[in-house]
Design a protein that fits this description.
Blueprint lengths: L11 H10 L4 H12 L12 H10 L6 E7 L5 E7 L5 E9 L2 E5 L3 E3 L14 E4 L2 H15 L5 E4 L9 H12 L11 E5 L3 H8 L6 E5 L5 H7 L8 H15 L4 E6 L7 H15 L4 E6 L15 H11 L3 E4 L13 H12 L1
Parallel strand pairs: 4-7, 7-8, 8-9, 9-10, 10-11, 11-12
Antiparallel strand pairs: 1-2, 2-3, 3-4, 5-6
Bound molecules: iron/sulfur cluster.
Length: 350
């Protein structure tokens, strides 16, 4: 990665200052911002002078990821992309076509160091954080390749967004700029495995994103066996931070619960989860139940097909909002990190 200015990681205000710093009028910064947000490369920025375009080409960097490969599910509703970054690393994102619009799930880091036991993304640890340009770049690259407008964004791919806090927050501010991609932050869902200080800090940023917290267990001892982060922050601390997030932002927090056969899928687990959320959140929240996608290396098994609905029914009987997440694109390795991992394995075998 070079030290050249990474223009796509700049806010519009920073680009105006940048324009001034190279002897241009500030409005040139606005023009560049708008071009970059659409993925237009330097040669395509035709309203800029040739001299300025040449200067940008040699003195700055445009870190737009490129499509390495993509896989479409048999039903055509899911498209999984493997994107190549400027330094040759790669990340995944998944485009999902729903009846209410198109959503894109993006990655926040190359690999992940959080160590969740059921997850393919963490098997080789974290390589590096993604820059704002690479977070935006996933939306731009997939949008341009598919020709589809992204209505909703989910930060639930490879990596932990709150472990890449500054870049994530800057990315959200650039994403929201109406002269750029202009996606409303209410259409963004940020998923975390439960980094308490990050949740508390995010609550103060004035960014109305939906917080989606991975619980996966209602007891600390069970959670600690599935997610190492639970050794650092107890459920009590985590749910206090979630309640704080709700109080500060007015945004309902949603909880992810990956159902793993024999680990967290009993009736007792369902009832314990309801009681915990009622007691700690004291406000309506939503639980997404996700039947585990099998990842060979983890040794965990998916629950039997009926048990997710059974689990959800118990939650609803107890007065807890719950839905079972439809497994989209299982035939395209849609579980987080699987496509990147299979590419790494192929490279190893070469
Ligand atoms: S589930 Fe998310 S936070 Fe946990 S290891 Fe995988 S990518 Fe990281």
């Amino acid at each position: 990665m070079s030290d050249l200015p990474d223009l796509l990681s700049m806010t519009r205000e920073e680009l105006r200052d940048f324009a001034l710093s190279i002897g241009e009028k500030p409005y040139r910064g606005d023009q560049i911002f708008s071009f970059l947000s659409r993925g237009v490369d330097y040669d395509g920025m035709t309203s800029l002078s040739l001299t300025l375009r040449e200067k940008l080409k040699t003195e700055t960097e445009f870190r737009l990821p490129s499509v390495l490969t993509k896989k479409r599910s048999r039903d055509g509703l899911t498209e999984k992309y493997l994107l190549s970054l400027i330094d040759g690393e790669c990340v995944e994102c998944v485009l999902m076509r729903h009846d209410y619009g198109t959503s894109l799930c993006i990655s926040s880091q190359v690999g992940c160091r959080m160590g969740c036991k059921f997850c393919a993304s963490t098997l080789a640890g974290k390589v590096r954080d993604l820059y704002p340009s690479e977070l935006l770049g996933q939306i731009i690259a997939v949008g341009n390749d598919s020709g589809e407008r992204i209505d909703k964004l989910v930060m639930m791919g490879i990596g932990e967004p709150l472990d890449n806090y500054a870049n994530t927050v800057k990315f959200l501010r650039i994403l929201n700029d109406k002269d750029g991609i202009g996606l409303g932050l209410r259409n963004v869902s940020l998923s975390t495995c439960g980094i308490v200080p990050g949740i508390e800090k995010l609550a103060e940023e004035g960014l109305p994103v939906t917080l989606s917290v991975s619980l996966h267990a209602y007891r600390d001892d069970v959670r600690q066996k599935i997610m190492p982060v639970a050794n650092k922050y107890s459920l009590d601390e985590l749910l206090r931070a979630c309640r704080f997030y709700f109080d500060k932002t007015g945004r309902r927090v949603s909880f992810e619960y990956t159902l793993i056969a024999g680990k967290n899928d009993s009736r007792e687990d369902a009832i314990g989860l309801c009681r915990l959320l009622k007691e700690k959140m004291r406000v309506t929240s939503h639980v997404n139940i996700i039947p585990l996608n099998r990842v060979e290396e983890t040794g965990f098994s998916p629950p039997d097909p009926a048990s997710a609905e059974r689990f959800a029914a118990i939650l609803r009987t107890e007065g807890q909002n719950a839905t079972v997440r439809r497994s989209m694109g299982a035939d395209v390795d849609a579980a987080c990190g699987q496509l990147r991992r299979s590419l790494q394995n192929q490279v190893k075998e070469l």
